[in-house]
Amino acid sequence: MEQLLKQILSEVQGVKQDVAGLKQDVAGLKEGQLRLEQDVTGLKQDVLGLKEGQLRLEQDVTGLKQDVLGLKEGQLRLEQDITGLKQDVIAIKAEQLEASKKIDGIYQSVVRIEGRQPQDIFALLTTINQSLQQKNSEVLVLNEEMLGVKGTLHRLTRQ
Predict the structure, then answer these.
(1) Residue 122 DSSP one-character state
(2) Spans of all domains in the chain
(3) Model confidence at 53: pLDDT above 80
(4) What pLDDT score was predicted for residue 1?
(5) Predicted model pTM
(6) Is the pLDDT of residue 159 over 80?
(7) How far is CA 126 from CA 31, 85, 130, 135, in A?
(8) How far apart (Å, rounded) are the C-alpha atoms in residues 32 and 119?
């Protein structure tokens, strides 16, 4: 029986050692679990940080979209202004062409007038000269008649 007791005692000591080993293993598992929980907490914080970063990125993207929309509206207004300016330039060119045609017409008239002016002046002077010659002839005839009347009047007054 002693041997049996020794054997039981030996087995109890083996069980104690096994229990002590299990306790160490459990303690190691608890430490591992604690480290895992800390890692999970760190991961949760990282995920939370990522979510916050994603939210900021989404807000930035929304802001950029609004900025792009504003730029597009500005570009549209600029394009409309440019279209208006192009139409104004076309109208100005048309008016300039019309004015150029009018100036050309005036120039042609002036050239025509200047070209014919000496001829017109010569014709007027010739007409005036002819009229003066005709009037001079009439004056001479009248002078001769007046001289004749004077002579007759003078003779009559003497008689």
Answers:
(1) H
(2) 1-121
(3) yes
(4) 76
(5) 0.44
(6) no
(7) 137, 59, 6, 14
(8) 125
